[in-house]
């Protein structure tokens, strides 16, 4: 039996297989509101046969957006717009849905990637960013404003409010974004956090605000499956690293964390990364061993046999697909065919089954003849 297609429980959430659709920014919202693009995009992925769909980084505050076109969940209109998308998904798919709640910190207010990226000046629609310390991501960028006590309280409250909105929407799980150089990662890394108060300096202090945000969300939605996206290393000497990530992951476990989605990098322009197939899997394996928590491995996982080996070898509990599933939205179908497993597929697509794959669509009940 394929281990990739075996069931898994994380918190109160039960998955039919270990394939996760990773959160991928679409930069297609309007003032934070989900649009018809999200309906098409997530409708497609909800029919992929994966075990879990995680919605893209969703800003908890307008100033926490990576770009002006980021999805948001800070208001009733945001909640209603996303609710329309989710209602359509649930009509045709039983796939559980999670959401990644995020704040970009000093990496906010950027042009869309296909418009060249880079920080937007205020005259072109940019805004004042905030961060643990007044240190820009790039020397050429405007300086963020260091968060004071009121600013910290506003951010924490925004994560809590967004989590409560997610619960009202019936979303099954939440992933807090503390990776890729965004705000909570900025607090963790000494490269971005040079504060002299209780939120800066030693590891315990740098972990304090991310842990406070996590604990506040955990208290607000105690019944929901709650995890975190973590950059396990900055890939820069003197920055955030795997040893500190192990300590942080154990503290998260004490706060009631249900899973850790392990990525890396994104905090510093001087990072030195040599990507290759499964290059971040050893990080997920180390965090799993250090914390005892279920982990999601991600990063150039492209082949069914590769994903199967990761799960069967106990290196991670789930594998997440990003670019690979954008390129091939039926990746789980094809993986199941290779590994002798079955997936859920909508009845409208049952007649697409290739000859010799009669067991691939587990719930299929089709007549033997095909008109």
Description:
With 371 residues, the protein is of the alpha/beta class. The chain has a single domain (8-340), classed as Aldolase class I (TIM Barrel, Alpha-Beta Barrel), CATH 3.20.20.70. Helices cover 32% and strands 14% of the residues. Helix 1 (36-45) runs parallel beside helix 2 (76-92), helix 3 packs parallel to helix 5 (203-220) and helix 5 runs parallel beside helix 6 (242-254). It is globular, with a radius of gyration of 20 Å. Mean pLDDT is 96; it is low at 367-371.
Summary keywords:
single chain, 371 residues, alpha/beta, TIM Barrel, 8-stranded parallel barrel, two-stranded antiparallel ribbon, 10 helices, 12 strands, disordered C terminus
| Strand proportion | 5-15%
- Number of continuous helical runs: 10
- Low-confidence segments, given as residue ranges, are 367-371
Write the CATH homologous superfamily. Answer: Aldolase class I
Name the shape in a single word.
globular
How many discrete domains? 1
> How many DSSP E strands?
12
Q: What is the helix fraction of residues, given as a range?
A: 25-40%
**Main beta-sheet annotation:** 8 strands, parallel, barrel
Biggest sheet strand line-up: 3-4-5-8-9-10-11-12
Mean pLDDT value? 96
The span between the termini is 33 Å
Structural class: alpha/beta
Order of helices and strands: EEEHEHEEEHEHHEHEHEHEHH
**Do you know the CATH topology?**
TIM Barrel
Tell me which CATH architecture applies here.
Alpha-Beta Barrel
Rg calculated over all Cα atoms: 20 Å
CATH hierarchy class name: Alpha Beta
């Amino acid at each position: 039996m394929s281990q990739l297609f075996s069931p898994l429980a994380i918190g109160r959430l039960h998955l039919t297989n270990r394939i996760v659709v990773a959160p991928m920014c679409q930069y297609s919202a309007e003032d934070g509101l989900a649009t018809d693009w999200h309906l098409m995009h997530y409708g497609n992925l909800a029919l992929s046969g994966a075990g879990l769909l995680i919605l893209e980084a969703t800003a908890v505050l307008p100033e926490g957006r990576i770009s002006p076109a980021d999805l948001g969940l800070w208001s009733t209109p945001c909640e209603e717009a996303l609710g329309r998308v989710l209602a359509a998904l649930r009509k045709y798919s039983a796939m559980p849905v999670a959401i990644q709640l995020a704040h970009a910190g000093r990496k906010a207010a950027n042009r869309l990637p296909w418009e060249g990226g880079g920080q937007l000046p205020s005259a072109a629609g940019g805004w004042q960013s905030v961060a643990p310390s007044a240190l820009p991501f790039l020397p050429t960028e405007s300086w963020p404003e260091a968060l004071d006590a009121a600013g910290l309280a506003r951010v924490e409250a925004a994560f809590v409010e967004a989590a409560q909105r997610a619960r009202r929407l019936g979303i099954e799980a939440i992933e807090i974004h503390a990776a890729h150089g965004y705000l909570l990662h900025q607090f963790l890394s000494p490269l971005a956090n040079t504060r002299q108060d209780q939120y800066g300096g030693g590891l315990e202090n740098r972990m304090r605000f991310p842990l406070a945000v996590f604990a506040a969300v955990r208290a607000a939605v105690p019944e929901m499956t709650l995890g975190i996206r973590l950059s396990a290393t900055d890939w820069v000497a003197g920055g955030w690293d795997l040893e500190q990530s192990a300590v942080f992951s154990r503290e998260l476990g004490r706060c009631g964390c249900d899973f850790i989605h392990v990525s890396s990098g994104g905090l510093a322009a001087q990072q030195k990364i040599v990507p290759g197939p499964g290059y971040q899997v050893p990080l997920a394996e180390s965090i799993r061993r250090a914390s005892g928590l279920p982990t999601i491995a991600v990063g150039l996982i492209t082949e069914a046999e590769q994903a199967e080996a990761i799960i069967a070898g106990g290196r991670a509990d789930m594998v997440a697909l990003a670019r690979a599933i954008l390129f091939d939205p039926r990746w789980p179908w094809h993986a199941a065919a290779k590994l002798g497993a079955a997936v859920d597929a909508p009845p409208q697509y049952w007649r697409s089954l290739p000859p010799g794959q009669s067991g691939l669509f587990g719930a299929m009940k089709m007549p033997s003849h095909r008109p």
